[in-house]
Design brief:
2 copies of one chain form a homodimer.
Chain A lengths: L2 H12 L4 E4 L2 H8 L6 E6 L4 E4 L4 H8 L4 E4 L4 H11 L4 E5 L5 H10 L5 E5 L4 H5 L3 H24 L6 H14 L4 E2 L4 E4 L20 E6 L1 E3 L2 E2 L2 E6 L5 H20 L6 H14 L11 E3 L6 E5 L12 E4 L2 E4 L3 E4 L2 E5 L4 E3 L7
Parallel strand pairs in A: 1-5, 3-4, 5-6
Antiparallel strand pairs in A: 1-2, 2-3, 7-10, 8-9, 9-12, 10-11, 13-14, 15-18, 16-17, 18-19
Helix pairs in contact in A: 4-5, 7-8, 9-10
C-alpha cells in the first residue's frame, strides 16, 4: 500500500473512524496515483476497496496494484458499497461532506440498516494535498512550461481579426502537441470590453488593434494543472489601460514579496488589495488574490482575506490581482508560486509581463 | 418571466412547495437561458432570486432580465440564501438532492433556524429537459454539424505516426473554428489496444497502420452538446476487427429501427444487446446503449436495460453499442437520434460509417 493511503489510515485512527468513503475524483486520483473517474474508494483499516463500472475496470486493474481491491459495479453502487462496509464490519464511516450529494448520503444511510454510522468529514485528503511532493512539483512545473510555450506561440500568431474562440483553439491545440492531456480548464480569451468579466466565455468577437486581450489558461499535465493570465496588446496601448496595468503589476509584485513560510494568507491578499485601493480602484478587485492548484484547478489553500492560516513550504498557488471596469476593460496578471523554505519561487517567472 | 420558470412554478404548486433551490448548473442554465456558472437559483412563487459572486455579476445582470433578481454574494452564500428564504417567508423549500452536497444541505438547514423546511426533490427541471424544444434542437443539430465537419477534417489529415493527443488537439481546434464553444467533453482518441477501454484518455501513443482508431467526441454549441463515435482505419483492416465492426454496426441498425415514440427504453437496449450476444460477444458490451444529451453531455433519458419508461417525441439521445476485447481492441459506433412523431431522425446520419 502506498504512503498516501497509509497516511489516510493514520488520519482515520486519529479521528476514531474505521472507514472513509472517498468520492472527490481528485482525492481518489491522489490516493491511487492514477486518473480515477466515476469511482468511489473505501479506505479502511481492514482493507481498501475501489468501486467503478465496467467502462473502467481494465485500466483500474492495471493501476490499483496492491493499493485497493477492485469491485466492479454497474448501477446500485451504494448497495455494493454498503455490502462491503458490512462485510468488513466497519462501524464508523467518514464521508466527504462537501462532495457527496445529499441523495447519495441518504441512499448509503438507508442501506446501512443501522449497522454502521456515517460521519461527515472534510480535509482528510485535501489538507495533505496542499503541500506538494517532489513528483507533484515536477508535474506542475511541466504544466507551467507547456503553458509558457503556448503563450510564446500565440504571441507570434496573434493578429487583428482573429476571433476569441480561435485564439483559445490555437492555445489548446499547441499545449497538446507539447504533451498536455488538454487544457487545465476552459481557456478564457477576452478582448476589449469582454475583459472586464473575470470569467468571460470566449466567443466570436474579433480582436481589434489597441484592445487589451486577456488570456487566462493552463495545461493539464498528467492530471496536474497550471494556471496563468496575461494581457496581450496589438497596436497602441491606451493610457488608462497602461496605468491600470501598472497598478495590477505592482500589486502583484508587492504580494509576491510578502509570500513565504509562516505568512498569513489573508495578509498576502491584503497587501495587493490595499495597494489597489490606494490607487483609487478599491471596489474593482472583485475576487480573491489566489488559490492552490494541483490535481484540481481550484483547491486549497485559498489566498483570501478570510483565511487566517499560514503558508507552508511545498504549497503551490496563484497570485492574480485584477482590476475590472465594467463596460470598459479588465486587467488581471496571474502567476504561480511554489513556497520554498526561505520564501517563494515564481514558477511562471520566466514568462514576460 | 420566461415559460420555463413559469412551468417550474406550476411544478412547485403540484408538489406543495413554495420554493425550490436549483444548484445543478445545467438546470440553472436552462431556466435562465444563459450559461450560468457558480450560481444558485431560488425559484419561488414570491419571486426568483439568482445568487452569484462578483466574477459573474456583470454578465448575470445582462442575461437575467425580468426572470430573477440578482443577489451578489462573495462567500457565505448559504447564509444569504437563507436570508432571502426567510425574507420571502417561504416555508417548504425543495432542493436538488442528487446535486447538493451534504455539507451545503446541512449549512442551509442550520441557517433555517427551524423557520423553513428543506425537502429533497429530483427531476423538476430534468424531466422537462428530456424533451427538447425547437431552439434546443437547432443548437444540437448545429453541434452535430460542427462535429461532422471536424471528423471529415481529421479523416483527411490523419497519418501514421500521429499521437492520440495530437488527433484530439486537431479535432478540438477545428470545432472551435466552426463556432463551437469547445469540446462537449474530453475527446477520446484510442488507437489499437487502447480502444478496448471505453473511456481511454488520449496519450502519446502513435497511430500505426492497420490499427483501429476509436474517436469519441462532440462539440459544445451555445451550451448544447453533440456526441459521436467513429472508428477510423489507416491501412488494412484485420479480419477479426472487420467482423466485430460489422456486428456492432448491425446491432446499432437494429436498435435504431426499433426507436420511436412509445417504445420502452429497456427494449431498445435489449435489441442491440441480444444481437451482440447472439454473435458470441455477450459479455463484451459493457455499458448502456445510450444517454440523452443536451445541456449536459450525459442526461436523462438513459437508454439502459433498467429503464422501463417510454420514449417521447422531442427526446435526443445517443445509440452507441460497443464490443470491447481487453488487450486487443474495441469497437463502438455512436450516433444521435431525435425522436419524431412517427419514429426517429438520425441527426448524425450523414456521417460515414
Amino acid at each position: 500500500m502506498n504512503s498516501r493511503l497509509r497516511n489516510a489510515h493514520c488520519q482515520l485512527r486519529e479521528r476514531n473512524l474505521d472507514g472513509f468513503l472517498v468520492s472527490l475524483p481528485a482525492n481518489i486520483s491522489y490516493l491511487t496515483d492514477a486518473s480515477s473517474r466515476d469511482s468511489y474508494l473505501l479506505v479502511s483499516l481492514k482493507g481498501n476497496v475501489y468501486f467503478t463500472d465496467s467502462r473502467y475496470t481494465e485500466e483500474a486493474g492495471a493501476f490499483l496494484k496492491g493499493n485497493a481491491r477492485l469491485k466492479e459495479c454497474n448501477g446500485f453502487v451504494f448497495g455494493r458499497i454498503a455490502e462491503e462496509i458490512l462485510k468488513l464490519k466497519i462501524k464508523n464511516v467518514g464521508f466527504e461532506e462537501r462532495c457527496l450529494p445529499f441523495a447519495e448520503f441518504a441512499s448509503l444511510n438507508d442501506f446501512s440498516r443501522g449497522k454502521f454510522k456515517l460521519i461527515p468529514v472534510h480535509g482528510i485528503v485535501e489538507d495533505k494535498r496542499q503541500v506538494k511532493d517532489q513528483g507533484e512539483i515536477l508535474k506542475i512545473k511541466k504544466a507551467v512550461r507547456i503553458a509558457a510555450s503556448a503563450l510564446r506561440h500565440i504571441k507570434k500568431s496573434l493578429v487583428c481579426g482573429m476571433k476569441e474562440l480561435e485564439v483559445a483553439a490555437e492555445i489548446e491545440r499547441f499545449m497538446r502537441y507539447q504533451g498536455a492531456r488538454g487544457a487545465a480548464f476552459e481557456t478564457i480569451v477576452a478582448a476589449g470590453a469582454n475583459s472586464s468579466q473575470p470569467h468571460h466565455i470566449p466567443g466570436s468577437k474579433r480582436i481589434r488593434s489597441g484592445e487589451p486581450v486577456l488570456i487566462d489558461f493552463g495545461a493539464d499535465y498528467q492530471g496536474y494543472k497550471s494556471d496563468l493570465t496575461r494581457v496581450l496588446f496589438l497596436g497602441k496601448i491606451n493610457v488608462l489601460v497602461r496605468k491600470v496595468y501598472d497598478i495590477v503589476l505592482k500589486a502583484q509584485e508587492l504580494a509576491i514579496k510578502r509570500i513565504g513560510p509562516g505568512a498569513e494568507m489573508a495578509e498576502i491578499d491584503r497587501v495587493a488589495r490595499e495597494y489597489i485601493a490606494s490607487k483609487g480602484y478599491g471596489g474593482c478587485f472583485t475576487h480573491n488574490l489566489g488559490h492552490g492548484s494541483g490535481l484540481e484547478i481550484h483547491e486549497a489553500p485559498y489566498i483570501s482575506g478570510r483565511e487566517s492560516s499560514a503558508i507552508r513550504p511545498g504549497m503551490v498557488f496563484t497570485v492574480e490581482p485584477g482590476i475590472y471596469l465594467p463596460g470598459k476593460f479588465g486587467i488581471r496578471i496571474e502567476d504561480m508560486v511554489l513556497i520554498t523554505n526561505k520564501g517563494c519561487e515564481v514558477i511562471s517567472g520566466s514568462i514576460d509581463k
